[in-house]
């Protein structure tokens, strides 16, 4: 499971010019959700603050739970709490370039990935072309009975 520091990831994308256009939090969530679905993983992304009044844009994002820290706390604290409360921390991947979170991940033997590296992985994965598995029948050809049926349909009986 991935736990992602949302604003840290957004900031690293904008700061390093890793994307040609500015990206919004909701766009980021949909992109990360697509990535997680492709690699068969789930995750949670946590943003500072309360987020937009209408959070419906964040509904139904594949494989990703979208959370806002709320008032009186911050995303880092929420993420630290999630790391501490997890019963299988070795299965966690914490996405943040924040030293505090990377240290918390190491303390629980979770994996940590810097935001820039994670975004690079997303870009590579999503730019790959999906290979479409060909049906076995394409290589094997038609059976004798199928051939006979098609010949009859087209009036080419032998």
CATH topology: Rossmann fold
Mean pLDDT: 89
Order of helices and strands: EHHEEHEHEHHH
Task: Give the termini separation.
Answer: 61 Å
Supply the helix-strand structural class: alpha/beta
Spans where pLDDT lies below 50 across 5 or more residues: none
Number of domains: 1
Major beta sheet, specifics?
5 strands, parallel
Strand order of the largest sheet: 3-2-1-4-5
Helix content: 40-55%
CATH class membership: Alpha Beta
Q: Strand percentage, roughly?
A: 5-15%
Annotation, overall tally of beta strands: 5
Quickly count the helices: 7
Radius of gyration: 23 Å
Q: How are the SSEs ordered, and which strands pair?
A:
Blueprint: E1 2-5, H1 6-15, H2 25-39, E2 43-47, E3 64-68, H3 75-85, E4 93-95, H4 99-107, E5 111-113, H5 115-127, H6 136-140, H7 144-153
Parallel strand pairs: 1-2, 1-4, 2-3, 4-5
Written account of the structure:
This protein is an alpha/beta fold and 158 residues long. The protein has a single domain, classed as 3-Layer(aba) Sandwich (Rossmann fold). Helix content is 46%, strand content 13%. Strand 4, helix 4 and strand 5 form a beta-alpha-beta unit. Helix 1 crosses helix 5 and helix 3 runs parallel beside helix 4. The longest helix is centred in the N-terminal third of the chain and has 15 residues. 27% of the residues are buried.
In short:
With 158 residues, the protein is of the alpha/beta class. The chain is built from 7 helices and 5 strands; from the N terminus they run βααββαβαβααα.
Give descriptors for this structure.
13% strand; 5-stranded parallel beta sheet; single chain; alpha/beta; Rossmann fold; 158 residues; 7 helices
């Amino acid at each position: 499971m991935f736990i992602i520091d949302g604003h840290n990831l957004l900031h690293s994308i904008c700061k390093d010019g890793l994307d040609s256009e500015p990206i919004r939090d909701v766009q980021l969530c949909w992109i990360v959700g697509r990535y997680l679905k492709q690699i068969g993983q789930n995750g949670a992304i946590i943003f500072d603050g309360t987020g937009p009044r209408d959070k419906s844009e964040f509904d139904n994002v594949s494989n990703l739970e979208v959370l806002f820290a709320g008032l009186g706390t911050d995303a880092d604290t929420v993420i630290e709490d999630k790391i501490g409360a997890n019963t299988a921390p070795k299965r966690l991947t914490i996405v943040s370039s924040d030293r505090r979170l990377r240290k918390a991940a190491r303390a629980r033997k979770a994996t940590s990935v810097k935001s820039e590296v994670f975004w690079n992985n997303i870009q590579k994965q999503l730019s790959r072309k999906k290979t479409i598995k060909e049906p076995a029948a394409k290589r094997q050809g038609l059976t004798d009975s199928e051939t006979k049926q098609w010949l009859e349909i087209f009036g080419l009986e032998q």
